[in-house]
Amino acid sequence: MQPLLLAAWVAELDGQIVGHVGLSRSGAGDAAPVLWSGRAGVPATDTAVVSRLFVSPAARGHGIGARLMAVAVQGAHERGLHPVLDVLASDTSAAALYRRLGWSLLGTVDQRWSPTQTVTVHCYAAPA
């Protein structure tokens, strides 16, 4: 079995790590790859899931999130994969970033995170 994590990157500002993003193969329960697959007519295995985007609150407003996303998209393309992601429906600032970057909303789904927790997520795909 291949590992899910393909790559990860960090961002620095003034010598301090202030951000992170990961790129993974799709795993069981990932909705965005399935939605993209249906829309694009390609196998879900042709996607890479952008995950764990984080920018320190003190470092926001410097374009770090956009730069991390650009690096992740480039990493997916270098692997011949199309980047997709999901984000909690309640995380409106992250969703706004993805829309500003031209990502398309694929749909909104409920995901079971544990036997007692179900969350609503928005699934996005990078521009083609």
Structure, explained:
It holds the Pfam family Acetyltransf_1. The protein has 128 residues and is an alpha+beta fold. The chain has a single domain (5-125), classed as Gcn5-related N-acetyltransferase (GNAT) (Aminopeptidase, 3-Layer(aba) Sandwich). It is 27% helix and 42% strand. It has 3 helices and 6 strands, in the order ββαβαβαββ. Strands 1-2-3-4-6-5 form a 6-stranded mixed beta sheet, with helices on both faces.
Salient structural properties:
Aminopeptidase; 128 residues; 3 helices; six-stranded mixed sheet; alpha+beta
Summarize the structure.
With 128 residues, the protein is an alpha+beta fold. The protein has helices spanning 31-40, 64-78, 92-100, and strands at 5-13, 16-24, 47-55, 82-88, 104-114, 117-125. The chain has three helices and six strands, in the order E-E-H-E-H-E-H-E-E.
